[in-house]
Design goal:
2 copies of one chain form a homodimer. By secondary structure, chain A is of the alpha/beta class. Chain A is built from 11 helices and 13 strands. A 4-stranded parallel sheet of chain A has the order 3-4-7-11, with helices on both faces. The first copy, chain A, starts with a strand and ends in a 27-residue tail after the last helix.
């Protein structure tokens, strides 16, 4: 078992003056802690997947049976904040993954690539979303084709580009891959991280890397009104961080066939942003936090009321046992956050990144 | 009127030991010749669109009403020949275009971006191909969504990525763009280039940059059997180089609306590779070249027999008057090629780039 990391999330946080709520130990310390609690050894490679020479050495030395690919810039607002960050996102994600595909082809062609995708690739079409492919009947003929994509940010676009590149590598080179089109993750810990505080995983709450439920819980603890963007009718698929790991494990244990590009929609329940705000407000009140819900101007360009009904049966068919969201989990999150209250950086909470800058430089003068 | 060029096609030819059949003059000489024959001045900017500082200066200085974007690596085999060239292709095309979208947003938001796409984005699905979008009825609901893509090379993938990025820029930032999903171009000259030999355009026949009909005509002249890949049932849309310019002109004269990403399928007729080989064989015989048709092992991974029926009415509706392909045009191409016979580099003709390398380095030992 090996891990590849270039600490880019830590770097991006530094750049933005933000940090994980939970203190993240150094990689070596986390690997030692895991060895102590589990007896298992993890080898580490420190470098970037965009660095072809580095990545080729990793694949040649490890000859992996499976690669779990989480090595991408994962924030939509990060990708929308500037041209530089948009380019950084698409370069890191698309070119990094393209490098990986070539090295798997050349050095580990039977390897199963388990790739983190996103439900955000689909956007919010007015029809039911299928898992990766859709049978289309058109003018009397039929074919099953990739589900059309309407991604909502330049980050989500990078994942769409990846999906097309990986699909191609499977079709043409016979590679095997599972794309985990993940919903929005919430939660703080798993059974593994709970064994030793040195193993704790990150809990981001800033406008770039924080996800909505985690952000709402933190806002409740620090007394910040819950920041619902616009009407709050935006509906997405969600899952507990514990379930994400179950899903990855199920994918690895049941690999795709050679030449197959398999797509799983990885979430367990769907909620609107307003529903989540109401859940957090109610749960917080039960433990003594009185908090308002604030409908702030939406910094994103997105539909605030829309149809949403994505299929998500393939992981259930493989045996996924979901942990559903409820008041109890929210209350436990609030308590955990409270213990780290002094680490909260207040300036990181409000949204600043605009999808459509109001007066781009120069445009007013044209 | 300004032109932006970094001479990359010239560089790539040098790298491969190949060249255009027709001698291409330097940019300054071509601009002078155009000034002499037309009285029109073209300003030139020499640099790469991946160079953000350079490209921003171009957009700020020219404040374009329209950008005709041909600035991409355009060869499928080039993109499949190595990891380095795959990365170069997707980097140049995707990041270069992404830079352009940001600078249009910031400095020329009303500009009409006319982008060269390719029919190869669609691949060969088993249903009729529409122009960019398809109305899908699914489980009792309806939506009009981007037509699903099955591109056949890492170059074609870069164009799919571009299409998604540009569509997003139109949806989110309100830019306006027309994507010209062009078929395979044939022909040597236009009314403009015929006015002065210094204006002649390139005629590529090598395995990287040559297109099939041009390659067959050249093969006929030099006595090389016509290289049909596999069965030859591969069917594509084609158009005369004269019609490509008509199409660009029609797009520019009839701009897309603000926020609109419009897709035109830009070809006039469809042929299979075998039909083209037979046409060239017959026309060549009429002018004294006896030539064989050789079904060589297909270096590409593609369907050699398939359904193909793409819609292409939008440019006709705007007034496109096609020049159709026939024996007379082929005979005139053969004569023009014969005049440049001594410039042919014989080693450039046979296909070498394999879509699926037979024994990738290291794979045999795994």
């Amino acid at each position: 078992m090996s891990v590849v990391d270039n600490f880019s999330r830590r770097e991006w946080h530094k750049r933005n003056g933000t940090d994980s709520l939970t203190p993240i130990r150094g990689l070596d310390e986390r690997i030692s802690a895991w060895r102590e609690v589990s007896g298992n050894e993890i080898a580490s490679y420190v470098g970037a997947i965009e660095d072809a020479e580095f990545l080729e050495r990793v694949i040649v030395e490890t000859k992996p049976e499976a690669v779990i690919h989480y090595g991408e810039q994962a924030s939509a607002p990060f990708s929308m904040a500037s041209r530089e960050q948009a380019v950084e996102t698409q370069y890191t994600n698309v070119i990094g993954t393209l490098n990986l595909l070539f090295f798997l082809r050349d050095h580990a062609p039977d390897c199963h690539l388990v790739k983190l995708g996103t439900m955000g690739e689909y956007g919010t079409p007015n029809i039911d979303i299928e898992e990766g492919y859709i049978e289309i009947e058109h003018k009397g003929r039929k074919d099953t084709l990739p589900f059309p994509k309407l991604p909502g940010s330049l980050y989500h676009l990078s994942k769409v580009h990846d999906s097309h590149n990986i699909h191609f590598a499977c079709r043409i080179w016979g590679l095997r891959s599972t794309d985990l089109n993940q919903g929005v993750v919430y939660g703080i810990e798993t059974d593994e991280t709970a064994q030793d505080e040195r193993l704790c995983t990150r809990f981001d709450y800033d406008e770039w890397f924080g996800t909505v439920l985690n952000r709402f819980c933190l806002q409740a603890v620090v007394g910040h009104p819950l920041t619902v963007y616009g009407k709050g009718g935006q509906t997405r698929g969600f899952l507990n961080i514990r379930d994400t790991l179950q899903c990855v494990e199920l994918a690895v244990e049941n690999p795709a066939d050679a030449g197959e590009f398999r797509v799983f929609n990885q979430f367990t329940e769907q909620f609107s942003v307003s529903q989540l705000a109401e859940l957090v407000q109610r749960s917080a009140a039960e433990v003594g936090f009185e908090i308002d819900i604030d409908h702030v101007e939406n910094p994103r360009v997105e539909l605030e009321e829309h149809y949403y009904n994505p299929v998500h049966t393939k992981l259930l068919d493989l045996g996924l046992k979901p942990s559903y969201l409820g008041d109890e989990l929210v209350r436990s999150m609030l308590k955990t956050i409270e213990r780290q209250r002094e680490r909260v950086i207040d300036s990181a909470i409000d949204p600043r990144t605009q999808w459509k800058p109001a007066s781009p430089a120069g445009a007013a003068t044209s």
